[in-house]
Amino acid sequence: MDKEELLKLPPVLFAPFLAAGTLAAYFGGGLAGGIIFAASAAFSLFFAGKLPKAAVCSSGAALGAAVMLIYTMFYSASVLNYAGRTVLTEVKVMEITADSGDTQQFIGEIDLNSFRTTVRLNGASLVETGDMAVAVIDLERADKENELRNLSKGILLSGDILEYVEIKRTPFTFEAIVESLRGAMTERLESTVFGDSRELASAMFFGKDEGLSPLLSERLRISGASHFTAISGAHFAILASLLLQFFPSKNRRARAVFSFFITPCAVIFFGASLSVIRSSLMFFIISTAPLFYRASNTLNTLCVTVCIILTVMPQSILDIGFAMSVLGVLGAGIAGPEIGKKICELVPPKMKAVSPIITVFFSSMCAVICTAPVSTAVFKGISLNAVLASILIMPLLAAGMTFMLLLGMTGAGVFAVPIDLSMKLIIIIVNFFGGNRAAFLDLDFAGAWLLAAICAAFVLAAAFGDMKTLRKSGVNIVVISAISVGLSFYVNAKRCEIRFVGNSTTSAAVVIWKNEADVFVSGSGVGLADDISECLREHGAYKIGTLAALEADYCGELAIYELSELVEIENVVLSESISGISAQIVDKDARFSVNGVTIASAKVSDSETDADIILYHGSVTSPPKTSARYAVYFTNTKHELPENAINIYRSRDYRFILKAGRPDISIT
Fold this sequence. Notes:
Elements: H1 3-7, H2 10-28, H3 31-47, H4 52-80, E1 86-99, E2 103-112, E3 115-124, E4 132-141, H5 147-152, E5 155-168, H6 174-192, H7 195-206, H8 214-223, H9 233-243, H10 252-270, H11 274-288, H12 298-312, H13 320-345, H14 355-379, E6 381-383, H15 386-410, H16 416-434, E7 440-442, H17 448-464, H18 467-494, E8 496-502, E9 507-513, E10 516-522, H19 529-538, E11 543-548, H20 557-566, E12 568-574, E13 584-585, E14 591-594, E15 597-603, E16 613-617, E17 630-633, E18 645-647, E19 654-659, E20 662-667
Parallel strand pairs: 3-5, 10-11, 11-12, 12-13, 15-16, 16-17, 17-18
Antiparallel strand pairs: 1-2, 1-4, 2-3, 4-5, 6-7, 8-9, 8-19, 9-10, 14-15, 19-20
Helix pairs in contact: 2-3, 2-4, 2-12, 3-4, 6-7, 6-15, 7-16, 8-16, 9-10, 9-11, 10-11, 11-12, 11-13, 12-13, 13-14, 13-17, 14-15, 14-17, 15-16, 17-18, 19-20
């Protein structure tokens, strides 16, 4: 099938407009009705035998608007009515996300008057994954800080379990068998591989990234390789290709029948994330096509898969992993190989041996460009090393997963050796590409995602156009990339602002000045290292000039050590000496001044501290009083705060722009 015929296929025309209609209905509200009305006119033209392409496109937009409208009006609105209520209901434990020994946080599925919904719950450490329990739950609306991420997972509510009435252990089901196999493989990995290799293998093979050191996690992000530690379609594709090696490529029917069994097993094994579901559906369609005497095409299959998922689960359009997965396939699996072929045609005959390398390089580069709109919008930038790092890591991941499969099936410790070796090599690559924070290009200016989307559009034009289109698209991509880099440098050169990070017990003001930052910690600083490092990375600061932690005690020592591993710190200011930390010791006067703006820290119970900006730490137990021009709280309190106060816990989209020595607050 040639490119023109491929682009005329109904799924290829239908899927993009389905996605656009879904987004428009969610973010545009009233646009949904207009889209549906416009589509009805297109349907009339279709039945009249005119404009069939327009009819297909508009019908996609209409369906997307309709399913999202149904979801928001008749499902999510009904579920959100339970916010603020206490219910007695049955809970299925889907995933344990945190367990401190006494308490645990998990994702559960509950029934609210025939509405099945997923919630994030906190309770005593009494349940395990797969358990069924009856509990009394105090429900609230899910936190707004991660609203889009919550909605993409169907999490509209969160809650505290007040009492467990009954707990039923995991029944002997097919799902439980696969989960048991997963647990056994994890146990074999943890008993045979040690150190950072074990933690990285657990993250890459099973999605358990909580054991990764802060330094390795940060370098994974800077190198552009952090997506390998989140179970995605790539993991499914590697596993599926490994298992299919047991069947001869000529025996297509046997491979097709086998896919019926491998697909549900793999989804249960890896977890039913949307990226895994997307990959499994594509694999299932491609593998079973011979049974129906059909040829499969990657673009058509991708579009069919997107149509199925968005029609059944319209909230999937808000899932970051799903968007990255679809765009990644579009870049690496469709645009990249096509562009690689065209570039290879320009290579002299004597250099044809490098053609595979060219194809791999452009596939990786197109994947980065096509996912850049999401990366820029969500993570505020892209890694300049992502292309090379991904090319080097992917074969090592595939090799490691192969031996992990053998280790899990046989239990033979000898297979732990190549697993350990592959992980050590990946760590070397990550440390090399992620050691320089400047390798992460921050793109947090307005319209950055739009420029990235235009680049992605030119990539697709280059893939499906002729050689002339390829050259023009290449020039346009270079120009837009140069503009993006120039705007990033310009914004950084003019930047002078305060951003905030924190939790319910401690917080910090991050004063970003060009490519440097000064950090003022209110409270001990425990648990802030990763948040501070992320804030610097996303907003273009490479190092910390002064870290003032005037209220830090020995409990804050670990936080300072962690932060010093992640970011270069020139000067540390403390109120008292802490073993092993070279610091300037000053009186315990928790104040900091920037451009004439005074910042102070205080406990929430302190109403006498006077400053332009006060960072309060600790839990609010009663309505607080403050004398600050702007008071900053980090708490999930239900108490009302003063009019001049900001609760960063509820929404961290605040920044203080420093102008003429006076803080001028603006919402980003």
